[in-house]
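Hi V.,

You were right to ask for the full record rather than a summary. Here it is.
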Amino acid sequence: MDLLGEPAPSFDDPVGLLLACHQRIQQHCDILERIPSYVDQKGVDEELRAAVTRILRYFDLAGPAHHADEELVLFPWLLQQPGFPSALRAPLRNLAEQHRLLEAAWQDLAGDLHSLIALEKPMPLRLEPFVSMNRAHIALENAEMFPVARELLDADTAKILGMTMVQRRREMEVAV
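Predicted structure:
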């Protein structure tokens, strides 16, 4: 019996780490979509508050770090690769703009979630466009960008990119 699930990839596998993050984002989106019916059935209880708190923490902390890993490390590296397909260059550049739109949609939804658990009463949540934008964004990255990145990355370069991600996160912690 596997009680702990699969361990997350390490920074030695930056694409695997980003894919694992996408899986967590999808799981959180699934939970977000279930919240309205949960509140209708059970109200704002401790289980809901715990789930909402986890989601808030994830998208407030891990979400921006994930976007930065892509925008500051992986995407610039991909654009420098001669083997990166020219047909994917414009969509790759557009992904950063999608991150800004996702972050704005998150701010709206986060405000709703904070109000939900503070007021402890049913209220409308602006799940859209946050959930659908995340799903479409992840589908593009997973299907188009990450397979190419895996193909172009050798083990040594993957470690270098991963260590760059680690160093950037350490610098962010010191700055905060």
